[in-house]
Amino acid sequence: MKVEIDSNSGFCFGVVTAIRKAEEELELGGELYCLGDIVHNGKEVDRLEKCGLKTIGHEEFCSLKNSKVLLRAHGEPPATYQKAKENGITIIDATCPVVLNLQKNIKKAYEEGNTKDTQIVIYGKIGHAEVNGLVGQTDGSAVVIESADDLHKIDFSKNIKLFSQTTKSIEKFNDIVEKIKERVADGSKFEYNDTICRQVANRIPKIVNFASQHDLVFFVSGKKSSNGKVLFDECRKVNNNIYLISDIDELDFSLLKGVASVGICGATSTPKWLMEDVKSLIEEHILKKDNLE
Ligand code: SF4
Question: Which domain holds residue 240?
Fold first, then answer.
């Protein structure tokens, strides 16, 4: 049986940089907090916590004083930076440059537009950390739509400036653009900005090709990962025999029966070492089984 890891799966540069910054700070010693999970992967969070990183929520962040806090790749709204300033918190800013650029563009669009006539609309997941950071650029006024079902939230008599969370599907974004075009009122302007990160989008054809070449696929990803969901759904379109697992203990060896090739792939938040652990465990199981036969 062939067991193969997708060479294109694993951390994107935004996550690699955030983890490197955390490791560098931890090596210097002293306390380091991270606001939210550094990556949507519980196993990698556990690894870094063992090295001393302390994950905190916004409530705990607000009560901290004179500490060092790392901001992860998803970014934060301006209120977080303001709070840090007030409480003497040193920020280690690991916001991904792609997200930073999107934040700047949304802020610019918000400031340029007469807010009474122009709505900033963000296609993204309500409550997702990146989306909260984006909404914060508009003083909380942006309309967030999760799907075409949310279009009723938009006032089509106003000008619309549409942006996207970086990890959404391009196909679904384009579909929303077409639906807005159909409804926008005469005399109103509609401007859309495809702000989807190509670290995710460019992986789709490669990961789909990988998934189509194996009899069975294990997709390794944290359940909270947005890009994990996008990539998993794309793979499932070409291979129904695919299973999402977040850890090795979710491996179901009975699925290996009658299979000639197993593929292992994952999200931009999936560590390579975890995919390698999955591969080793499958290979050990095959070896044990062969020895018994
Ligand atoms: S997916 Fe793109 S935007 Fe998100 S952290 Fe990675 S590189 Fe940055």
Answer: 2-10+200-292
